Amino acid sequence: MSDVPPPPLSVEELRRLVASGSVDTVLVVFTDMQGRLQGKRVHAQFFLDDTLGHGTEGCNYLLAVDVDMNTVDGYSMSSWDTGYGDFVFRPDLSTLRPAPWLPGTVMVQCDLTWLDGSDVVQSPRQILLRQVKRAEAMGFVALAGTELEFMVFDDSYEQAWDKGYRDLTPSNRYNVDYSIIGTTRVEPLLRDIRNMMHRAGLVVESAKGECNYGQHEIAFKYAEVVTTADRHTVYKTAAKEIAANHGKALTFMSKVNEREGNSCHIHMSLRGLDGSIVFADPASPDGRSDLFKSFVAGVMAFLPDFSLLYAPNINSYKRFQPGSFAPTAVAWGEDNRTCALRVVGKGPALRVENRVPGGDVNPYLALAAMLGSGLQGIEQDMQLEPALVGNGYVAERTRVATTLRAARDAFTQSPVVKTILGASGPRTPGAELGGVAEELRVAEEVVRHYTNMADVELRAYDAAVTDWELVRGFERL
What we know:
With 477 residues, the protein is an alpha+beta fold. It has helices at 11-20, 44-54, 124-137, 157-162, 180-184, 187-199, 225-245, 290-301, 307-310, 363-379, 404-413, 415-422, 436-463, 467-473; strands at residues 25-31, 37-43, 56-59, 86-91, 97-98, 105-113, 140-153, 204-209, 215-220, 223-224, 249-251, 264-272, 329-334, 339-344, 351-354. Strands 7, 8, 9, 10, 11, 12, 13, 14 and 15 form a 9-stranded mixed sheet that branches. Strands 1, 2, 3, 4, 5 and 6 form a 6-stranded mixed sheet that branches. Helix 3 (124-137) packs parallel to helix 10. 46% of the residues are buried.
């Protein structure tokens, strides 16, 4: 096997595969609010003859439902009052790739537009693309890598459902962090995922065991931020489908039980548009540029405002427990895993790791929040406070949000969230902003949309009766 994966498919290659009968299906997909791939299976010849030229349409409720696909109130872009119309899936042909875990299938990821051709600004991919445009206007390219952890169970997804997700059998019975013999037990599945992702065009680095029972991580090489988010969602979907083919279930749920949760650490750096190094400065005593320090200061300063995009679900907040390797302190440290932000690497490899997101995160939204916050720090020339030394779990620092409700309120009430999410260019004095009114419109629509997402989850959770309540109160209260 080559160390370099095949490039994404060209249209010409797809035509040859279809003509030979090797490919008959094209998955035409986009990523929804929950970070899931949604879309259609299009016959490959029809894709070439029709969909390729103008896309395909789908109901706009796909960005206005809960995790159960229920239609819910509160979304201005899609409702019974507006008739639940369509938007258009516009294929991004740079994402055309094999889907080797599925027979005769390739995949293409899409941007969403309205029927008049205007962007669906609430789309997660569009939110990230807006920050990419802003970075480019400031002279930067953003690079990132996401590290997804997951837990593997010997039960199938159907068995897990029938058992109410209780008393499942983890594929490892003990902590297999970095264990070779422990990971060998699950290697048939891990190997299949690695090789399928390689054939799909992802750059696979390694696999390792983690702390919780049956917990593992497969690492991929960093890339430009939109490419990273695209690959993240392909991998997350494929891993579940490959696990199902093995008769197993795996979950990226942030917190499955009282032990360690599933994280999604995000590593990020900037380069100049010409590929030049902008974070490192050999002339600086610590080897770090002022620009790097302002970027990290921005990410840290606005982390509480963007907790909703880093931790989007009720369950996300169960992960933030002392001594769990999930952060509780809004602080940065030198290679310090007790802090929300961990600075690692030197020279070209210098980067900041955000340890707040869990495995349930939507990568487009988290990357947009992190990049936008860092760019805001650069624009404001923010100063970075000294690194936290020691145990962040006991340090007297601002704490990471502990509930979805607190994160929702911080997101909704923060003026800087609208400033960042609306921006599509530099916000320096005299800069061309492309229309302040348009930026405000975009920001208000996005904030209102994702505030409602949180409200939907909070209402559902507040109405639910949990197993914990039944055990505590059925007889004894």
